[in-house]
Amino acid sequence: MIWDLQEWTGKAVQPSALAKKTGMKLSTVSGAIGRLTAAGLVKHTPYGEITLTEEGTEYALIMVRRHRLLESFLVRTLGYGWDEVHDEADSLEHAVSDNMIDRIDAVLGHPAHDPHGDPIPTAEGEIEEEDTLPLSQAPENSVVTVVRVSDEDPHLLRYLVSEGITVGSTLHIGQKAPFSSSVSVTVVANSPEKQHAPDMVADTAADTTAQTDHPVTLGNAAAEYIRIQIKQTDTQKTDTQTGER
């Protein structure tokens, strides 16, 4: 949980953020942090930030690898939708053996990403780092590629697929209305550049090609759950057009 928060936000974790994510009382979280600190897995000063120790990071990466490989297996082999696998993987990740995880990895061809675009750590504890930013920060009139989508909210995942948005989708960012934090996007293409989207999302991606001609408005909270890479900005587009003249 601490790793997930750090990885997604890029910020140090506060006990209050951990309590919000888990739905636990702050006092309960503080007790758990105390036990993790005593075990040498985290560092924490009273009322301060929580950071993983080297040992804590190693353990976290083991669990992240298990979780993301299980999600991949459930989607690619058992036909689950990408909106159905998070809770299932949570239940299974502590129960399966290291041998089973290694076999799942081999059967799937050692995937680099899970169904939501999240990088899967290697057996050696290495993890790919990609330069991404939240969709909420995408410049107006830019063209972007969806790289990752948080698996926290299954309702959002189902909505995105219904609108043709998945990992690998190319989006055009519309103009932002004054005094609004929403983002308007139009699906330009669904030919994923990263090749880890189409079979991962399974049958839920079947309808995405049809949804490419109308703008989709996402609130800032939803846009924060989507990580993108910029393919072209409005300035780059103008420079290209000027050079063609």
Q: Give a count of the beta strands, DSSP E runs of length 2 or more.
A: 8
CATH superfamily of the largest domain: Ferrous iron transport protein A (FeoA)
Helical content band: 25-40%
Give the integer mean of the pLDDT values. Answer: 85
> Which parts are unreliable, with pLDDT below 50 for 5 consecutive residues or more?
192-211
Which descriptors would you attach to this protein?
245 residues; alpha+beta; Arc Repressor Mutant, subunit A; SH3 type barrels; 2 domains; six-stranded antiparallel beta sheet; two-stranded antiparallel sheet; 9 helices
Task: Describe the structure in your own words.
The structure is a single chain. The protein is α+β, with helices and mostly antiparallel strands. Helix content is 39%, strand content 15%. The chain has 9 helices and 8 strands. A hairpin with a 5-residue loop joins strand 1 and strand 2 (50-52). The longest helix has 23 residues, at 54-76. The radius of gyration is 19 Å and the shape is globular. Mean pLDDT is 85; it is low at 192-211.
